[in-house]
Amino acid sequence: MIQIMGAGALGCLYGYMLQKRYDVTFVARGNQFRALKRGLRVTGLFEDFVNVKVVDKPYNADLTLVTVKSYDTYEVAKLLSRVECGIVVSLQNGIGNEEILMRFLKRVLGGVTTYASNLVDYGWIEFAGVGETFIGDLSGEMVDDVFEVVGIMRECGINAYAVDNIYERKWIKNVINSVVNPITAILKVRNGVLIEIEEIWNLALEVLREGEEVLRGMGFEVELEDTLRDVILKTAMNRSSMLQDVERGKRTEIDFINGSIVKKAEELGIDVPYNRALIYIVKAMEKTFLNSLKP
Ligand code: KPL
């Protein structure tokens, strides 16, 4: 049995693809739990409606995909440690999730995905972009679990690859997210707008350069402008996960994305003022929203 721990936009997309050949259970809460009991609607690249299995707490499984928000990872890791959750793969944004999971669980793998999905409403996702999924052990060792997970995903039509450098890939994805996510969330635009408006693109490049400098400080020789452009083009119609959070008045993952860059930059003695400014603005937005709800 495959368990999807966190039935948000991405979790639902993976669960939807995997349930074609496997027994999949979604672990969800609140409105999403109630909506999924009635079924999962998929629009966008596919039009479908499927009945899904949904529960409100984790059970024993052979494979558990962790797709909760990074700030929930610690609680989720504790819950998962009370069951037999099999191989655990984090497909989350941000840095540090695998390390948290590994404190409580044994067979943890890292994952990076560029598949794009939007939560249109509870129980309803928009499949917004076919991407790639990279799976690896944080140590870089090509352990059997990596091939097993990749095999399962490929059987279900997911473009999945086993890699020996998932840590570096997670950091590269994180730098891309550090550019796309806060800027789209602040300006409330779809990803594609970042390359359509000159001033936004110039800002994006400033943020990117800081991330590249940090990556180089970590020993990763990177040049990411083409990668950034490519991700934006492939997900042009997508609303970034941070924009979706802001639109719902939810907490964002800014601490795990830009926050991890600032932390690493401090360790390396690098100044990253654009990243720090984006954190101030996004946090201010989170607080302004919460305050605006008060009478
Ligand atoms: O990972 C993403 C996100 O929104 O969190 C990207 C790749 C930017 C797609 O929107």
Structural account:
Helix 11 packs antiparallel against helix 12. The chain is globular, with a radius of gyration of 18 Å. Strands 5-2-1-6-7-8-11-12 form an eight-stranded mixed sheet, sandwiched between helices. Strands 4-3-10-9 form a four-stranded mixed sheet. Strand 11, helix 5 and strand 12 form a beta-alpha-beta unit. The termini are far apart. It has twelve helices and twelve strands. The model has no long low-confidence stretch (mean pLDDT about 95). It has two domains: about 160 residues, NAD(P)-binding Rossmann-like Domain (Rossmann fold, 3-Layer(aba) Sandwich); about 120 residues, N-(1-d-carboxylethyl)-l-norvaline Dehydrogenase, domain 2. The longest helix has 22 residues. The protein has about 300 residues and is α/β, with parallel strands linked by helices. The relative contact order is 0.12. It binds ketopantoate (KPL). Ketopantoate binds next to helix 6.
Write the SSE topology.
Layout: E1 2-5, H1 9-18, E2 24-27, H2 30-38, E3 40-44, E4 48-50, E5 53-55, E6 63-66, H3 73-80, E7 87-90, H4 97-104, E8 108-113, E9 116-121, E10 124-129, E11 133-136, H5 144-155, E12 160-162, H6 166-187, H7 193-196, H8 198-217, H9 225-234, H10 241-247, H11 258-268, H12 273-292
Parallel strand pairs: 1-2, 1-6, 2-5, 3-10, 6-7, 7-8, 11-12
Antiparallel strand pairs: 3-4, 8-11, 9-10
The structure holds ketopantoate.
Strand order of the largest sheet: 5-2-1-6-7-8-11-12
Mass-distribution shape = globular
Low-confidence stretches: none
Q: Give me the Rg, rounded.
A: 18 Å
* Name of the CATH homologous superfamily of the largest domain: NAD(P)-binding Rossmann-like Domain
Helix/strand-derived class? alpha/beta
